[in-house]
Amino acid sequence: MKYLESIQQSLEELLASDERVMIVGEDILDPYGGAFRATKTLSTKFPDRLIPTPISEAAITGVGTGLAIRGYRPIVEIMFGDFLGLCFDQLLNSASKFPLMYHSKVNVPLVVRTPMGAGRGYGPTHSQSIEKHFLGMPGLNVVAPSIFHNPGKLLRSATLDDNNPVVFIENKILYTKELTEGNKSLHIETIYNKNYPIQLVRNYAGTAEPDVIVVTYGGTSEIVREIMTDLADEEINVLTICPSLISDFTLEELFKQGIRFKKVIIAEEGSVGFNWGSEMAAVIYQHQLSVLQKPIERISSCHDIIPAAKHLEQEYIVNKKSILDNIFKIIA
After folding, report:
1. Rounded to 5 degrees, what are φ and ψ at 29?
2. What digits encode the pLDDT tens for the residues 15-64?
């Protein structure tokens, strides 16, 4: 199954199994079915459960928040993640605050789905990864399925099991990729953080310590998957740590597992500076400074506008070469 197919299947199953589920967003009706076809055929099958909207992301998120307060399980679709900035006030001052302000007498089980990331040459305002601006917001969960997760299962859990508002990041470069489930060349172990899975992915069998640990999430996982396959042939052992819940991920579960962070690379597609990788590095330095054998290498996209030309875009964002170069540097 491909990443997008998992999302499509989950949306249909959610609508079929729970009458509280509603989908709200721009151009989500047939025959269009959304910019990336995630809701294709659903308005024909469930004509009363999909609500098309004008182009107003703040209003869309506000409608979703109101539906959630009234007992529905709404899924809001924002066509491109770049426009989450227009939803920011609704999430910061409304959806995430209401349960805290009213002592949990009000729940806001809202899911905001949005495609994020570069790699398709969509230019400066349709290629950004801006999820770092939503991390650390009290009451808001940010979930970013990787290629090592089943995004449909995560979407179902976020919709039905999480009573907090969730920003659900779907990296658009993953939509056409096949999920890693069943891949015999990689060995995946799952542990959980607040009911959201963390995938521990090894390109080798057994319990040997890895030569390098890569900490990543979301779209960058596809690049890391390719690298892990290549390095297995070179007998370089890689352990990739890939959480799905990125807004409340502290590495404590991994410390409990006895994982020793000797040589570490942290990779993310968001821009460099004040980002997810900063927090991960701080936690590792705080708890495993005596274990580290080399300084942590952090890889992010440039602190600049992403160009539309695809050959230039690849120079600005995290790519296979930048991660490989850092792996060879740190294990030397």
Report:
1. -80, 160
2. 999 999 999 999 999 999 999 999 999 999 999 999 999 999 999 999 99
192, 85: one domain: no
Express each pLDDT in 75-113 by its tens digit: 999 999 999 999 999 999 999 999 989 988 999 999 999
Kindly list the distances between the CA atom of residue 219 and the CA atoms of 150, 154, 171, in Å, as whole numbers in the listed order: 13, 15, 5
Strands (E), the chain: 21-25, 50-52, 73-77, 111-116, 141-143, 166-171, 187-193, 196-202, 212-216, 238-243, 264-271, 297-301
Return d(Cα 165, Cα 90) in angstroms, integer. 11
Task: Phi first, then psi: give them for residue 30, nearest 5 degrees.
Answer: -65, 150
| Closest C-alpha to 220, from 73, 104, 320, 125 | 320
The one-letter amino acid code at 44 reads T
Asked if 138 and 219 sit in the same domain, the reply is no
Alpha helices for 237-319 (secondary structure H): 252-256, 276-288, 310-316
Distance CA 281, CA 215 (A): 10
Which two tokens mark 27?
């151009």
Same structural domain for residues 168 and 262? no
Could you give the CA distance from residue 216 to residue 227 in angstroms, rounded to a whole number?
A: 13
Residue 181 falls inside a structural domain: no
pLDDT tens readout for residues 207-230: 899 999 999 999 999 999 999 999
Q: What is the end-to-end Cα distance of the chain in Å, rounded? A: 38
Nearest to 170 by CA among 112, 251, 241: 112
